[in-house]
Amino acid sequence: MEELEEAKRLLEVDRFKLQEQKDKLDEAQQSFDQDFEKKQREIEVNRKDAEVTLRELQNKVKEEQFKLATDQATFKEEFRQFEWAKQNFQEDIEELQSKQSELKQFEDQPNRMKSSLDQQENTLPKHRPSEDRCFDRAQDNEPEEETSQASSPTNETDSSQPKAGDDKSDPDTWKKPPRKRRRKGARGPLRIGRSASVND
């Protein structure tokens, strides 16, 4: 009986030890589970944060790509405008040079005309002033002499005709021209009209 009692006591001790070990295992399992859940939550949070960060980076990359494309388009437009302005500036320079050339030619024209006139004067025969004055006087007197000669036959013809009141049978009444009337006719409207017709 004593051996049986001793065996029961030892069995009870072993059972108690097993229970302690079981409790320790349960506690360890519970702690492990808690740690696992905590790690899972942290991993989930980190995953969500990573997804948010990734989306932000993707959006930022898209924005940078759009900005780069916009900058490229702007640069191309500015470069095109620069080339257009450069071409217009070159055309303005050429036009200005052309106008400057025309202006220089216009400014040099009086000098060329003066040089041409000087050459023409050098080629003309030289006259003395006294000869020029005599030539001018001769030219001025020629129209007066021609006018006087042209008006004289008319006056003589008019004066030689008989008057309406004179006796046509008497030669003395129309062959002798009256001197006073001849003098007036030479200085009257008939001479002026004759001179005007000659000048015309």
Summarize the structure.
This protein is mainly alpha-helical.
Please give a structural write-up.
- Helix content is about 90%, strand content about 0%.
- By secondary structure, the protein is mostly helical.
- Helix 2 (about 130-160) packs across helix 4 (about 180-185) and helix 2 (about 130-160) crosses helix 5.
Using DSSP, what is the number of strands? 0
Gyration radius (Cα, Å) is: 70 Å
Calculate the terminal CA-CA distance, rounded to whole Å: 187 Å
The number of helical segments is 5
Amount of helix: over 70%
What is the 3D shape?
rod-shaped
What are the low-pLDDT stretches, counting only 5+ consecutive residues below 50?
153-160, 183-187, 190-200
Q: Biggest sheet: strands, sense, closure?
A: none
What is the arithmetic mean of pLDDT? 75
Strand content: under 5%
What is the ordering of alpha helices and beta strands?
A: HHHHH
Helix/strand class: mainly alpha
Core attributes:
about 200 residues, mainly alpha, 5 helices, rod-shaped
